[in-house]
Amino acid sequence: MDPVRNPYAPGAGQRPPELAGREKQLESFEVVLERVARGRPERSAVLTGLRGVGKTVLLNQMRSAAISRGWGTGKIEARPEQELRRPLSSALHMAIREIAPAHRDPDRVEQFLGVLKAFALRATADKGMRERWQPGIDAPAVKGRADSGDIEIDLVELLLDASSLARDVGVGIAIFIDEMQDLGPADVSAICGACHELSQDAAPLIVVGAGLPHLPAVLSASKSYSERLFRYHRIDRLDRESADRALIAPALREDVKFAQDALDALYDKADGYPYFVQAYGKATWDVAAGSPVTAEDVRVGAPDAEEELAVGFFGSRYERATPAEREYMRAMADLSGDDGPVATSAIAKELGRKPASLSPARDGLIKKGLIYSAERGSIGFTVPHFGRYLRSQHD
């Protein structure tokens, strides 16, 4: 079939042509938006799941829902070793610019931008560097608010001031944080503390985070009350009906149908993971002669999808690991069965090493986002089917 008409879109954070199976999370977020708009207290939200399940896509869809209501929004992607101040300042600046035209008091907006600039400038401890770097906020810095240097104090003051501006306008502000597990401990604590204050004040400002499965544990380690601060959504693989719909609906818009055996074969290959659904759907479309798409088309197209996944989805991550880290992951793969969590003690036994001697490799893989601490004493791959991929490299 015509590859130009191919509707499937495998890509990092790229919205699929049919966002299937996420209705529950989107409906829940609509309730949050409506409650905040009515001045009712509401919790911020956290999305967790493995890579490839569509957390970033869902985060972007939630942001679109907030924008459609006239909210101010901003988004950041957390990175290891990067402090929160600069990216958060840029995200909040964007959000305020979206709602500022509706505010009746330009001086109030100008005052807040001065506070925001002072907050941003505290990102650099060295005075000389601070004087050279400017956050792009067209207002003089205001001293004495959100500029103490203590991120927890400053963030509370900054977000409460931002929420006050939004309340004046009758809308809300939503800050979206992707890869939230990569925030430093002090920044995680500050986010939790700020969300606590915002909820107590019924402030029209929420934080929506997305991250790997161990993100709730990261938040809990920072603040013991974090489980009550956020509404948690575990984003998992699609059920059969949703996976089929993700394939069928875009194809029907191109007057193409799938035979039932093709859908069976595609679900077996993709295992319900949204990224894999798109990858196998795209490859199958490109080799199919016409409608209906058959199981034979899936069989012929599957190697192309698997080659692309091996290079772009699996291989690129594997290449980031050191030799010691690769050895650790191979042992995980040999022990994991169907990619399930593995006891760290079992990995040490498999490699004939003492557990303590493997800590650097384990910690390095966690920092690179390749594995996560599933629970005390066990770890798992952050990427679905990664163990299967590694075992195939042994063959």
TrEMBL record:
<dbReference type="Pfam" id="PF13191">
    <property type="entry name" value="AAA_16"/>
</dbReference>
<dbReference type="InterPro" id="IPR027417">
    <property type="entry name" value="P-loop_NTPase"/>
</dbReference>
<dbReference type="InterPro" id="IPR036388">
    <property type="entry name" value="WH-like_DNA-bd_sf"/>
</dbReference>
<keyword id="KW-0479">Metal-binding</keyword>
<keyword id="KW-0349">Heme</keyword>
<dbReference type="GO" id="GO:0046872">
    <property type="term" value="F:metal ion binding"/>
</dbReference>
<keyword id="KW-0408">Iron</keyword>
<dbReference type="GO" id="GO:0020037">
    <property type="term" value="F:heme binding"/>
</dbReference>
<dbReference type="InterPro" id="IPR041664">
    <property type="entry name" value="AAA_16"/>
</dbReference>
<feature type="region of interest" description="Disordered">
    <location>
        <begin position="1"/>
        <end position="23"/>
    </location>
</feature>
<feature type="domain" description="Cytochrome c">
    <location>
        <begin position="167"/>
        <end position="333"/>
    </location>
</feature>
<protein>
    <recommendedName>
        <fullName>Cytochrome c domain-containing protein</fullName>
    </recommendedName>
</protein>
<dbReference type="InterPro" id="IPR009056">
    <property type="entry name" value="Cyt_c-like_dom"/>
</dbReference>
<dbReference type="GO" id="GO:0009055">
    <property type="term" value="F:electron transfer activity"/>
</dbReference>
